[in-house]
Model the fold of this input.
Amino acid sequence: MKKKSLAFAVIICVMLFGALFYRNLWENKGFERTEFLFDTQCTVKAYGDNAQKAVEAAFDRLYEIHRATDFFSEDSQVATINNAAQGEAVIVEPHVQNIITAALDVSKASLGAFDITVAPLVSLWDFSGEGRVPKETEISDALAYTGIDKISFDEKNKVRKAFKEVKIDLGGAAKGYAADEAIRVLTEYGVLGAIVDLGGNISCMGQNPNTKDGKWRIGLQKPFSATGEYDEIIEIKSGAVVTSGTYQRYFEKDGKKYHHIIDPKTGHPAEREYSSVTIVAQNSLYADCLATACFVMGEEDGRALAENFGAEIYFK
Ligand code: AMP
Ligand code: MG
Done:
């Protein structure tokens, strides 16, 4: 009898150990999905219970935000604003309201270095297509429709433009917001931990089951490295690591590189001695706006702006 119960106890122990081992393996592997969205590779990875459902729901949210903010789709809220007449009130939905609110906040704090009305300038340079160097007269014409004083945002949901030619581009902020929202969804699903990577916008929450301390390790890429080498590793428990870099989108003409971060004062790509700016902060929407703003501002003013928002900053 004693032998039997001993054997029984051993079997139970082996089964328990097996179940724990299996669960651990599964947790460490997690569930991951990658899709091409926001004009970049977007990956969401989650660990623990509900991981697959949570990742799928996070992607639903990413698609929802993309639909609202896509500059190139005629059905987006951004297109509705861009096609609106002078003074016409366009009522925007909550995702777009949240992005515009933060964008205007960072615009004011950066004295216009971050500016969603750069759209006419961005279009002139055609970064999403072949790329072209516009004539100075085209740039000065577009500059006449640039500046956040050319849009009003009343009652936090109505956008009006001072001229019909004014257009907005949320490309410097939408991915940051989308990462925040994906993390919100993953948290609601109760996953153990998760990481969201929207091409340079990385956010994470909860436990990383693959590190002893549960922290996430995020590598800052060496600018223009063909092999994607890392310069530095940032360790965080949760929050956002957002990079704005010249190497993310650029074209070359007559031996000169032209990148996609525009100085709204000159209408030209911001010429700086560094190639990228990384912001580490809790909120990814603000981190995204700040990374673009600080790139334009230069090292001294950029550091001061990041500090004002309680964010860490790295120039590479
Ligand atoms: P990011 O990669 O977040 O720095 O955003 C760059 C994108 O934001 C560009 O591809 C443009 O669509 C847009 N953009 C460029 N310059 C600015 C600027 N000064 N302020 C706001 N958005 C910008
Ligand atoms: Mg940005």
Observations:
- The first strand starts at residue 31 and ends at 37.
